[in-house]
Design brief:
The complex is a heterodimer of chains A (115) and B (110). With 115 residues, chain A is mainly β. Chain A has strands at residues 4-7, 10-13, 19-25, 31-38, 42-49, 56-57, 64-67, 73-78, 87-94, 105-106, 110-114. In chain B, the strands form two sheets. In chain B, strands 2, 4, 5, 9, 10 and 11 form a six-stranded mixed sheet that branches. Chain B has a five-stranded antiparallel sheet with strand order 1-3-8-7-6, with no helix packed on it. Classes of the chains: A mainly beta (115), B mainly beta (110).
Amino acid sequence: NAGVTQTPKFRVLKTGQSMTLLCAQDMNHEYMYWYRQDPGMGLRLIHYSVGEGTTAKGEVPDGYNVSRLKKQNFLLGLESAAPSQTSVYFCASSYSGLPSGSLLYFGPGTRLTVT
Amino acid sequence: RKEVEQDPGPFNVPEGATVAFNCTYSNSASQSFFWYRQDCRKEPKLLMSVYSSGNEDGRFTAQLNRASQYISLLIRDSKLSDSATYLCVVIAGNNRKLIWGLGTSLAVNP
């Protein structure tokens, strides 16, 4: 099992550019999440999905879109990147949904810099 | 007051020492509690859940104090490999939201 994988690991964007972060899991988990982690802010939930074809907003969804066309994949899109979106992005998955925090498996993260 | 607060540290301890850190939470209706470990530039990984009666996993002991609204993590016989940031996670409220602390940094020195 690869667990949760993320692509790419690093990326530098210019303001206004777009990109998609890919998250894949091979554990047959129903729930998937996108978090961002910033110094002094902790982990914040951007969007999440409770199953294939579903998405929902988290705490900080503005400027991001997501799609869950296949159960194993959860895509995070930035349509017009801004410097405020410079962060480390973590994808996570779980067999059951919140509040089972114990079942969160994280990917290795994507370090994004927007200049 | 922040919903979940942790002393950021760093806690610098020698190998073999016992170290403890706390995490306070503001919502008295909080229901579930966890400790995650995050190594530098890596993803968080579950260390242990925290049960009402307290629980132990090898050198690690987690406790919950509902009256004072905090959880604690005790590490005995510290190893160099314990150096990491320890994140407190609280599930609170009717919406069962996961709230992450900012973490406590631990450095175990030879």
